[in-house]
Design a protein that fits this description.
alpha+beta, binds zinc ion
Length: 96
């Protein structure tokens, strides 16, 4: 039974193909980065990343290239900075 479950997870991984920088650039979306060590996070501008790494570069592999500007750790996770799932939405002045 455990084998069955593992196979299902493999299928899910295969379906979830990595998104490339060029796809984010087309949407005007940046890359959200999160340091697994200290929790420092930032959103990188997509245009500069495409210029440096090319539009076909997979977003999940960016983490291996980044270093946390807070603590210097290389344990940095990345994902598309979709507005809906990004860092807590901006609160307008006086909204809170
Ligand atoms: Zn850090």
């Amino acid at each position: 039974m455990a084998g069955f479950k593992r196979q299902a997870l493999d299928d899910e991984d295969r379906r979830r193909r990595a998104i490339a920088l060029g796809e984010l650039a087309a949407e005007g979306i940046g890359v959200f980065c999160w340091c697994n060590r200290c929790g420092h996070n930032a959103t990188l501008g997509i245009e500069r990343l495409v210029q440096e790494l090319g539009p076909a570069f997979p977003v999940p592999e960016l983490g291996a290239r980044l270093r946390c500007s807070g603590c210097g750790s290389k344990d940095v996770a990345t994902r598309p900075g979709w507005p809906a799932v990004g860092p807590v939405a901006r609160h307008g002045p006086g909204a809170g």
